[in-house]
Amino acid sequence: MEAxxxxxxxNSKQFxxxxxxxxxxxxxxxxxxxxTMEMWELGFYMDRNRLLMLMAINIPLLIILSDRVxxxxxxxxRQAIRDASIAxxxxxxxxxxxxxxxxxxxxxxxxxxxxxxxxxxxVPASIGAMLGRSQLGGQSDDDGKSDHDDNxxxxxxxETSYAGELFLMAVGALFLNLNxxxxxxxxxxxxxxxxxxxxxxxxxxxxxxxxxxYALSFRGSHDLAEGTPSWHAFIRFTLxxxxxxxLISAYCLWTFHRIDDVGITQALIAVVILSFPGAxxxxxxxxxx
Amino acid sequence: MTKTTGDxxxxxxxxxxxxxxxxxxxxxxxxxxxxxxxKDAIADRDASPDLVGSFVNVExxxxxxxxxFEVRNKASVTASQVxxxxxxxxxxxxxxxxxxxxxxxxxxxxxxxxxxxxxxPDGKTIHIQATAFNxx
Lengths: 289, 136
Fold this sequence. Notes:
The complex is a heterodimer. Chain A folds into two domains: 7-150, no CATH class; 180-288, no CATH class. In chain A, helix 8 (195-215) runs parallel beside helix 10 (264-288). Mean pLDDT of chain A is 83; it is low at 1-6 and 138-156. Helices cover 71% and strands 2% of the residues of chain A. By secondary structure, chain A is an all-alpha fold. By secondary structure, chain B is an alpha+beta fold. In chain B, 20% of the residues lie in helices and 53% in strands. Chain B has a three-stranded antiparallel beta sheet, with no helix packed on it. Chain B has two domains: 2-43; 51-134, Immunoglobulin-like (Sandwich), CATH 2.60.40.10. Chain B has one helix spanning 17-43; strands spanning 2-5, 8-11, 51-61, 64-73, 79-90, 93-105, 110-117, 125-134. Chains A and B meet through strand 1, helix 6, helix 7, helix 8 and strand 2 of A and strand 1, strand 2, helix 1 and strand 7 of B. Strand 1 (157-160) of chain A pairs antiparallel with strand 1 of chain B, so a sheet runs across the interface.
């Protein structure tokens, strides 16, 4: 899809490769959700206002994601919107095809069920399609975003704004959260855990998150400028990142009707346990994206 | 702000004040959540659930008279597989009884469901009661 910037230079092979990467990304990221029973059920019982809200939020998310992980040096907002539309459409088509192929969708089901199931699955699938385009791409010569480019390559030498860092963490958190938030295990865990367990999980989430980004020397890990104490980064990045993971967890649980009519402490424990994968996703996104 | 050079990202050494404000607000919220949970960890430890069933409303439906009920758990411990029994009584005489199972009634929370009766409960008494549960 990135090839279609100019009609004169339209390269159908590149365009198709882009589409194929999108589908591969949708599969890679959303297949666990296609195979989750709760996601099928949510398709028919989920409140339509919440479903609509989820779908609406996905649009700006995809556009910003496209701008952020795409070819940011050349990309315009128009291109970002175009790529976001393609990713969303790929997500919808991939969801429909895969659900039908697995026998989850039948011809005799009502449109209400069918549209709901496809709509709820299309959200993670479209994010997968968008990430697949950027993360699976880059190895072939048609694509200037190679990992092995020189350091003067404009894409690998860049500054990420603070808001950009927080956005990346939100995407990472959303990704891991969406995989597990619809499952019954999340609320079951929150019922099995005592408040003491929850406090331990909060502390471990923060420690893991900070460790992922700063302490362990993964590729893409972050360093502080000379002479800055490490608690600076903890306050400026890790805590806001954890808060974002928590807010996204709460949003996912609410969207999937997991904390309706649930008392505050129980709901908070559910948010804490869901933020555990969310925090790791947020930290991983800072390394990967 | 974070500078990326090749594979390394270096955090800016002179961050914008917004970063500190965001960090401080986040710290306050995270600490508040931890304090809230800790308060319950210390002060609110029940050993078993405390379930109360109550009648919400009744509506005429194709299959009979549909009674919506609510089960409230007044304790902090979650009950799972809660059996809810509903009875329509006329004075002391039991006219009809039916029951259902609610998946979870979390601590200090409510769960709702419905029971379908063939007798019109109008003018009679409806009795809703939790009769059994499991630990999750």
